């Protein structure tokens, strides 16, 4: 939930002990899996209203995709021209039939290119200078934001995610969609209070000694009220929007059907990202986010993971006043991590705050395997005391031990500038579409990292990258695996925060010393366990000491010692 007011009260202990248990919240029904049968059932039950909503969704997403396609068409056209030239050169060696086919394809491409350019001229109303193009992009961005708000919570949530993706969208879109983090229309307070009473099973005045009549913040899935308990604690009361589950279920069913149709008629659209996998990930994550009991448990787990970090604060959950659609937690005031003037007024260094934030995420990703997946500026506040407060734990990510180990390897190779190792990491992490021969693509991957390794994440335009690399990329394109959706979102959001707080910020340069520290500690523990198992005869066939890895650790430790 976004606000200049954080959801913590005081710098109490950071969670000494295990994750708190929940007294007795109402059980929530398990989420139905996203299958063809369930989607058909959801869509068939809405009749004409369902078809009209599907048409509205298709119109907004279709226009949005068309605008982006036309905006980036010059990059695509340049690649296509080079590809046509290459094919014609190859055809000269294969006889008249091949030459005619290449000529015909070239004429077809030229006609299609002329059509797209005429279409772009008509839609964008003429040729554009830089100022006119910027004005048009800003107008399109406003239209997109208003359209997503009009479509409701599901699409506001999607817009919030897009608002962090400067790698995919023009800056005008990013700036406009970023306002969805804390500028969403609220729903009526009488409906909110009715939900509170129904969820808690008591009247509003029995639950709270006082509660404000207007929300202090509204977001995609709910809104927040300031209140006070009978025992005197000032709290924030987070209330879910009415009819949210049925609305989102239906919207996800529409998106599922649109993705299926797109994959069927435009199969190449799914090559650069696993859209169906991402939608399934979104489906499971958003329903988890709608369960405030799970959000409370996530907060408790996060607090426990950071119990020894004095600089980190996590809200205390009041389980006696919490259920699946109402969450009561501590309330504090704080400053957004990107409010540079506010931080400096409190004599707090924005650069130090950013470094602390990067350290917390390295711990979450490389040690805990459990991370806050929505680190936008509204969810990260700095208390006047300088403590960094995390809140809104509805969206979290989990990393399997295998994926975590692979990420550790990737950090090894980033730190060591090991281009060949990074090429293998991209293959191991499934960043290539299924069926690709890794050996065919390996030289391209290594070329990619040779050129881009020293760039900031925000400087890497993945669309341009896809078209500018060697032709083999067009045949075997990269794709973002669904299990990396929220990891990449978190990293891109952190990159955006870092650039605001420190114009010279580079994620990998900032993360490097902390990543080494975490890797040495983690790998050292594993190495000690392997040695102990070997000495005590407990080792098994899979627990072999990787001496090359030990050598890398030794060199890294020596380098860290010499750099101090």
Description of the molecule:
The structure is a single chain. The radius of gyration is 26 Å and the shape is globular. The chain is built from 22 helices and 13 strands. The two termini are 40 Å apart. The chain is α+β, with helices and mostly antiparallel strands. Helix 5 packs antiparallel against helix 6, helix 14 runs parallel beside helix 21 and helix 21 packs across helix 22 (547-563). It has a domain at 401-563. 58% of the residues lie in helices and 8% in strands. It has helices at residues 36-44, 47-71, 73-91, 96-123, 130-151, 153-162, 171-178, 189-200, 204-207, 244-265, 275-289, 292-305, 340-345, 350-368, 401-416, 419-428, 438-452, 462-468, 472-475, 485-501, 507-536, 547-563; strands spanning 5-6, 210-211, 217-218, 222-228, 234-240, 312-313, 326-330, 332-333, 335-336, 370-372, 380-382, 388-390, 396-398. Strands 2, 3, 4, 5 and 7 form a 5-stranded antiparallel β-sheet that branches. The longest helix has 30 residues, at 507-536.
Radius of gyration: 26 Å
Strand content: 5-15%
Determine the number of helices (DSSP H or I, runs of at least 4 residues). 22
Query: What is the β-strand count?
Result: 13
Descriptive keywords:
single chain, 564 residues, alpha+beta, 5-stranded antiparallel sheet, 4-stranded mixed sheet, disordered N terminus
Short description:
This protein is an alpha+beta fold and 564 residues long. The chain is 58% helix and 8% strand. The chain has a domain at 401-563.
Present the secondary structure layout.
Blueprint: E1 5-6, H1 36-44, H2 47-71, H3 73-91, H4 96-123, H5 130-151, H6 153-162, H7 171-178, H8 189-200, H9 204-207, E2 210-211, E3 217-218, E4 222-228, E5 234-240, H10 244-265, H11 275-289, H12 292-305, E6 312-313, E7 326-330, E8 332-333, E9 335-336, H13 340-345, H14 350-368, E10 370-372, E11 380-382, E12 388-390, E13 396-398, H15 401-416, H16 419-428, H17 438-452, H18 462-468, H19 472-475, H20 485-501, H21 507-536, H22 547-563
Parallel strand pairs: 6-12
Antiparallel strand pairs: 1-8, 2-4, 3-4, 4-5, 5-7, 9-11, 10-13, 11-12
Helix pairs in contact: 1-10, 2-5, 2-10, 3-4, 5-6, 5-7, 10-11, 14-20, 14-21, 15-16, 15-21, 16-17, 21-22
